Give the backbone structure.
Amino acid sequence: MKRRAARLAWFLWALSFALTALYVALLVLSWGGPGPLTVEEDIAIVPVYLLMFIIFSTVGAVIASRRPENSIGWFFCGASIAMAGGFSSQLYAQYALLGRSDALAGGAAALWLSSWLGILGLFVVPTFLLFLFTRRASGLESLARRCSALDRHCGARGRRPHVQAGPDRTI
């Protein structure tokens, strides 16, 4: 079972790298073309995207192949595939629908896919990662306990911030 999980983790890593290569190829093809994505102006963010795709997939594959029961590795693998796939499909949709070639099929499907897949990788998966660390108490309970303890600590030492009410300041 562990060997199968390791193979799956490294397959997901390879899939993420293939989607990253597709992203780079589509980036080069759509350079200077029409469309809402002006890659030439936002070229500084491209290395950040590439690093996110590569780091997330590599860390996820290493964790998932060594500890298949650990959900964090699988979340990292999924986030990398979602981000690389979402951004690649966005560039493909732009190139297919607005670009130089009318012969590319699936532009509308790629546009639909890009509308939710990138968001899934960037925001939803990291949010679920936060829930993995709060098994004993929910995140809000833990935050409330910490704030309450800080309030008691500051109140006992007399360091509570004092807010004065005035004609131009409301409490």
